[in-house]
Amino acid sequence: MAKTQNIETSLHPKTLALCIWAPYNRTKNIEAYYEEFLNLIKSNGIEPDFVEKMKLREIHPVSFLTAGKLEELRKFCEDHEIEEVIVSEALSAQQEKNISDYIHIEIFDRTHLILEIFEKAAHSGEGKTQVEIAMLKYAKTRLAGKGIHLAQQSGVFGLRGGPGETLKERERRHIEDQIRKAEQKLKSLQKVRTTQRKQRLSSNLPYICLIGYTNAGKSTILNALTKSDVLAEDKLFATLDTTTRELYLGNTKRALISDTVGFIQQLPPQLIEAFKSTLSELEFADLLLLIIDVSDSEWENHIKVVQEILADIEVDKPILYVFNKIDKVTDPIVLDDIDFKVDKYKPHVVISAKSKETLKPLTNYLTKWRKKAS
Length: 374
Ligand SMILES: Nc1nc2c(ncn2[C@@H]2O[C@H](COP(=O)(O)OP(=O)(O)OP(=O)(O)O)[C@@H](O)[C@H]2O)c(=O)[nH]1
Ligand SMILES: [Mg+2]
Known about the structure:
- Helices cover 47% and strands 15% of the residues.
- By secondary structure, the chain is an alpha/beta fold.
- It folds into three domains: 15-108, Rossmann fold (3-Layer(aba) Sandwich), CATH 3.40.50.11060; 120-183; 203-373, P-loop containing nucleotide triphosphate hydrolases (Rossmann fold, 3-Layer(aba) Sandwich), CATH 3.40.50.
- Guanosine-5'-triphosphate binds next to α8.
């Protein structure tokens, strides 16, 4: 490992953020990937004391890190009295447990980190229930990882139906029970959504959804277009709940527009699954505004991530690519490059949500689109 960085010393457990460049990660810009991971940690309200980078040539199937890397990590944690490690990758239950056992420190993987951010950001009953289901499903996989441990404790390693297995089985059943209850609750909450949708349809107004990578500016654009005050901040996953507003263009009510949860690369599958009820809104959209933070050097990769998730949830709707935050790009060479590259995405507009004037390409597009539709 290299480039140790002591950011802060405080009362919280001494935390190491372990940035891993795994062989399956085909990014052209690993530093941007690390930065995003550190932003996830920050969005969860944590300031890591140390940031370490580790490049892996191979993944060990049962411990993720090979023996040499494991020892390197153990030594670092011992030397710096680390009390918890957050890893940039999603680990299997067994990999997490094996690393943790070797270094004698608690490990949190990428999925755990994202689930905690979602838990903090959920406000509505539906949002909270969706996160609860994702967390329970995650807990269930971690329980499987505890199997050997529990069996060893009770001295029945390798025996089926012994006390260890019974305990695990009981825990598993308890979690499954909770998942079932939460899913029932979600179903009744979805009824409310269906009623709202019916009301929307009866209004005969077209329906527009804002989608995109987290922090791209979706809520800021919703606020600017509809004079609302949805929480918009420089934080990953600030929005989890869908907000629908009336969209006026000129002085006429033209459409209904919704903000949605943001996406990220390697979004935990439990979350996609749990958020299908919120994302099902997209099926009813007449137009998707795919918001892109064009000041982020990774914007093309972000579009790919969004397109992959849309394909995964089987949403195929007309898209307007909205390249946002152009005010942040000042380098003329980068501006030229953007100018050239955005042409691949049709139709598109380039905007800044910061002012009414720079938002105009979008409002003009929507006005024309609306006229064409009516
Ligand atoms: N400079 C600049 N900043 C912007 C622009 N649009 C949004 N921002 C900022 O970008 C940050 C994220 O904006 P949000 O609107 O919260 O982004 P979001 O896509 O809703 O993010 P999530 O809800 O977390 O997925 C905020 O700090 C905004 O003020 C823009 O056009 N220019
Ligand atoms: Mg938002």
